[in-house]
Design brief:
Strand 21, helix 15 and strand 22 form a beta-alpha-beta unit. With about 525 residues, this protein is α/β, with parallel strands linked by helices. An 8-stranded parallel barrel has the order 12-13-15-16-18-20-21-22, surrounded by 5 helices. It has a 5-stranded mixed β-sheet with strand order 1-2-11-9-10, sandwiched between helices. It has a 4-stranded parallel β-sheet with strand order 4-3-5-6. Helix 2 runs parallel beside helix 6. The radius of gyration is 27 Å and the shape is elongated.
């Protein structure tokens, strides 16, 4: 039996991997599912939303196929029925009529259940699903375990958790049955699972995976994991999903080519995880941080108490923020490692560099507690790469990131506090290259790089900042303070023209804000900040 129709080799990317995990078995006899090859990774992009590439990947044959109209109401109902019947689901999409007909023919379908206003016709038996739920249950033989309403764009979330023996009837608005609904037809009979238990392949889906693709995988009995993003490194759940799986199928767009996916799976299995799980910063977690210096309380709340008391402080903040975040909230410290000085000093660079050992008690305290540390640089006239290299050994750690504060970046003749400093994208990009290379060479997970800003002049040529290095997640930290209107004005101004690959962060000030935002108010900011610090 073949796994992939050779005619769609360019659409379904397949690669072979060599793993030490145990081999998975083939599909159950008579199900029509392609046998599972141990150590295989394959992608079915299904970019048109039809689900055709998924059935080509997972099935050799199917006596019954469910075809749905593309509207949400039809998609929700078709998914429920297909799962209960253990049948593949396809969606009729504009321009995809020929591919749909060819796939139904390839599967050798003897019966087709149309759900919604579907125009597909066949020489074999075609039946329209009725609108009445009881009639639908009577026709299909599916025992629905209640009814559940899907929110906008959330049908796939519900589909992943359905049980074929008793799926919920998912609804999403008013359903319009096809013209032939109600015509006499013999009732259907649910089939058997294609895979069961240890024989099932691991199937990865995400928010943009078509409902038809998700449904087919669930209906066949695959072990389906719904990820926050098309990358198995995104969080702890996605890492666990692929850690022991010898065969992984990824459905939907944006997984990348076969080499890229293989690399991501290997990293998910071998690279140290970030606090909260996974190896990608976002969107798998958010941070709440205390900002300051281990030397003096004048620079922020981290200097107002000892390391353990600072951990307790930020953990209380985490508890206040978690109810407002669907992602886990992680405790963090943003620790000032170099501080701008009013005097030039012995080296003439108007900045004091503290020894890494001075920061260790704070770094160890927060990371030992399962949190994340960020080293903040106030460079004066020093080069930012030179300052970052002071903390190279700390930055090799998987739970330590870096922040750049251009407010304190000076040009010749300037002094800290006399004006707002600035940095050009060229210097930022040199930091990016150095830090990304260090992260890659040290074998760590993705690292956070924060860029502080409260004035558009602080970062010149900002549109040229390089966000292409996968080793880093670049975040823009909006440092505006004052009234809520002033803070939101700064927030909106800084977001204008910002690369969509840069993640937004927010700062709350205890003294300068009037009043300080509550956790609820902070998390109501749009877009919701990924990193929140307190000073």
């Amino acid at each position: 039996m073949r796994h992939v129709n050779r005619g769609v080799a360019t659409a379904v990317l397949a690669i072979s991997l060599v793993f030490s995990t145990a081999a998975c078995g083939s599909g159950s006899d008579g199900t029509g599912a392609s046998p599972v090859e141990p150590g295989r990774v394959a992608v079915a992009a299904d970019s048109d939303g039809s689900g055709v590439e998924t059935t080509r990947l997972l099935l050799d044959e199917a006596p019954l196929v469910v075809i749905a109209a593309p509207d949400d109401a039809a998609q929700a109902r078709a998914a429920s029925v297909a799962i209960g019947l253990r049948a593949p689901m396809l969606t009729e999409v504009s321009g995809g009529e020929t591919a749909l007909a060819d796939e139904v023919s390839r599967l050798g379908a003897e019966r087709v259940l149309r759900v919604g206003e579907v125009s597909f016709h066949s020489d074999d038996e075609v039946v329209d699903a009725p609108a009445d739920p009881q009639e639908l249950a009577g026709l299909t033989g599916v025992r629905f375990g209640g009814t559940v309403e899907a929110g906008p764009g959330r049908i796939d979330d519900l589909v992943v958790h359905q049980q074929p023996d008793s799926p919920a009837l998912i609804t999403a608005g008013e359903f319009t049955a096809g013209a032939g609904a109600g015509a006499g037809a013999e009732s259907f009979e649910p089939g058997a699972a294609a895979w069961d238990g240890d024989d099932a392949p691991r199937v990865l889906v995400h928010d943009d995976t078509p409902v038809a693709s998700v449904t087919t995988a669930v209906a066949l009995g695959a072990a389906v994991s719904h990820l926050r993003a098309p990358d198995p490194r995104v969080d702890g759940g996605s890492v666990r999903a692929v850690r022991d799986a010898s065969t992984v199928y990824a459905l939907g767009p944006d997984w990348g080519g076969p080499d890229e996916l293989e690399d991501h799976i290997e990293k998910a299995r071998t690279v140290p995880e970030l606090p909260g799980g996974g190896q990608l910063m976002f969107p798998g977690r958010r941070f709440v941080a205390a900002y300051g210096s281990p030397v003096t309380p004048a620079l922020g709340i981290l200097g107002e108490q000892g390391p353990e008391a600072s951990v307790a402080l930020v953990q209380r903040l985490v508890e206040q923020y978690q109810p407002f975040s669907p992602e886990p909230v992680i405790a963090a410290f943003e620790i000032i490692g170099t501080v701008a000085s009013g005097a030039p000093g012995d080296d003439g660079n108007f900045t004091n560099e503290w020894a890494p050992e001075k920061l260790l008690p704070l770094v160890d305290a927060i990371t030992d507690a399962g949190g994340y540390a960020v080293i903040d640089l106030q460079p004066g006239m020093a080069d930012m790469v030179d300052q970052a290299q002071i903390f190279e050994e700390l930055l090799k750690r998987p739970d330590v990131g870096l922040a750049l504060d251009p407010e304190w970046k000076l040009r010749p003749g300037q002094q800290p506090g006399a004006q707002i400093g600035s940095v050009d994208a060229e210097e930022v990009n040199r930091v990016i290259d150095w830090l990304a290379d260090l992260t890659r060479d040290s074998g760590g997970p993705q690292k956070l790089l924060i860029l502080h800003q409260f004035s558009t002049a602080m970062i010149t040529n900002r549109d040229q900042i390089d966000t292409s290095r996968p080793e880093l997640a670049v975040s823009l930290h909006a440092d505006g303070h004052g009234t809520p209107d002033l803070k939101m004005g700064t927030w909106d101004a800084l977001r204008a023209g910002l690369s969509p690959d840069i993640w937004m962060a927010w700062k709350n000030f205890y003294d300068e804000d009037t009043p300080t935002f509550t956790p609820a108010q902070t998390m109501a900011v749009e877009p919701r900040p990924w990193f929140v610090s307190y000073q």
